[in-house]
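Hi,

Apologies if this is the wrong queue. I'm a grad student, and the batch job for Integrin beta from Nipponia nippon produced an output file that my downstream script rejects. I'm not sure whether the problem is my script or the file. Here is the sequence I used:
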Amino acid sequence: CIKANAKSCGECIQAGPNCGWCKKTDFLQEGEPTSARCDDLAALKSKGCPMEDIENPRGSKHVLEDREVTNRKIGAAEKLKPEAITQIQPQKLVLKLRVGEPQTFSLKFKRAEDYPIDLYYLMDLSYSMKDDLENVKSLGTALMLEMEKITSDFRIGFGSFVEKTVMPYISTTPAKLRNPCTGDQNCTSPFSYKNVLSLTSEGNKFNELVGKQHISGNLDSPEGGFDAIMQVAVCGEQIGWRNVTRLLVFSTDAGFHFAGDGKLGGIVLPNDGKCHLENNMYTMSHYYDYPSIAHLVQKLSENNIQTIFAVTEEFQAVYKELKNLIPKSAVGTLSSNSSNVIQLIIDAYNSLSSEVILENSKLPKGVTISYKSFCKNGVNDTQEDGRKCSNISIGDEVRFEINVTANECPKKGQNETIKIKPLGFTEEVEINLQFICECQCQSEGEPNSPACHEGNGTFECGACRCNEGRIGRLCECSTDEVNSEDMDAYCRRENSTEICSNNGECICGQCVCKKRENTNEVYSGKYCECDNFNCDRSNGLICGGNGICKCRVCECFPNFTGSACDCSLDTSPCMASNGQICNGRGTCECGTCNCTDPKFQGPTCEMCQTCLGVCAEHKDCVQCRAFDKGEKKETCSQECMHFNMTRVESRDKLPQPGQPDPLSHCKEKDVDDCWFYFTYSVNSNGEANVHVVETPECPSGPDIIPIVAGVVAGIVLIGLALLLIWKLLMIIHDRREFAKFEKEKMNAKWDTVS
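Support response: The file is valid. Your script probably expects a header line. Output copied below for reference.
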């Protein structure tokens, strides 16, 4: 919202769906531009703009016409006119659109039972269709009987086509123009398209008129069927189309000419897509080219005509490709003599009616639409597939969720109308789009207001919208004065050469502060000398997260102080377990104890490394009062009566941790080297209580006999071990000496012999 740099409320609300405009007159700080009034709602509220002063118009939808879909069974006694049958709901609504904010509505479609059908049979009467014509002559009454199973209101018509009546499509010799067939064949003159029978409910009349038709002929293989389809689509009055289901059966055994092929006959004018029937004959085939496929698609869609291509097996592939280009069309395989045409029409109709596809008219610039379908059996789709539902039986109801979004406002802000309809049906939903491009407060603006420097602008939505040639927050300057050096002097602080503290630009003698990349960081002040992001920090946060930065100085929240609001005035962290602040040994500063006596430490000045502990401090008094001995035995009554003493039988009976009063467990030695146990506690009234085990634990004396016996036994064993070692060494020595003697003795014998 900030980056949109909106100069008015209208520009602001077009910046995004979450942008609001503060119309409070004194909302802006000094140096802030008018565009700072535009921000997201939470930011405006945090900056002090009341909700009632925030312009934030929202889009809406309003249904104008909402008739329920018709529930009607075939054979029902009531006979409704086609226009009284409703298959789509709602029929008319108004959407108020704000840029970027989608409006959603639900569209319901139900294929009505016993819905009227108009069927026009368009037949190729070139010579190759001779045997087919014989079977079509009885089509009227036979098809009427079959269609009675689907609808009680059925009408049928008939038309025929051959080819353009120019070379090289037909032979233009007089004889061939009279009878284009060869031999004894009696053929009618060639023609482009003829409306033989407008739509009628009289099947016998269909049989009668079709029975009078004769085959014609042409030279080339492709036929001029596209000319005929165009005239059937656009000549609604002559054909007799009603606003009901419109079916066009196109029967042929050949291909087709399309746009551009007319050049072969010297025809270069594009098809104009208009009706040119005179006496039920198409009279401009020699003047206009064949229509293109896209042109046909447009006209068939505009006139809600569903096409059934009944073609022979040979051209199935071609017409299936054509079907893919023409929405709501079907292809059936025609037998060589058209004997299966009735079943083909029934099957194709069932196929077409089992699918509903929504289409919308051309959208205004900047408007987008998206669809989500809710079809049978829980099948849901979005994007392109969200436009359609398949496998629908007559009487089934499906729903579509449609989102309409405006991405920009029209230049003049005028209303637009779009229409949505199911392909092949005449019913449609009309949607009137109204664009929210201005704020309500703009209509309440005061032109040439005195608040805008002597009437140089319109005062609206809390700000001035300047007249042409005027600028400034209050329109106080003309555009000719903007670059004046005299104006720059008003934008410098005293004894400074910097314009707007290098944080803005001088416009009309006033500083307009520049914007930061982070939209939450703002420059302000007469000379843009202030900001809300250069205050002292604590723990990485501006003002420690405990205050607001205003003009580079922290304004602390209650219970906080300090340059970075990092000093808490809350004393609860300093409260000791005895209910005293810092145990009475210090002062609480910024939520931390500052101990006045340096020998005390800890969060609440409870620790003293050089002090005697509670146990050592009181052991002499406990010893003299409990056992009548110790260093204070003589002065016990004077020095040791400051606590209440209770004797207990054993250590298990001493008070245990968990009681409300602070408790110390002690184990000390008395003058007889016996251990005695006691606890020391101070209650909330300041009274000291001592519980002492009445019997000390004295160590027993040593057992002399075992000690002496052990020492003697040890000496004996050590002596024996030494004797054994000496004996072993002597044996080893004697053996060595003997071995030496034996060796010398042998040497003496050798000397004797020599």
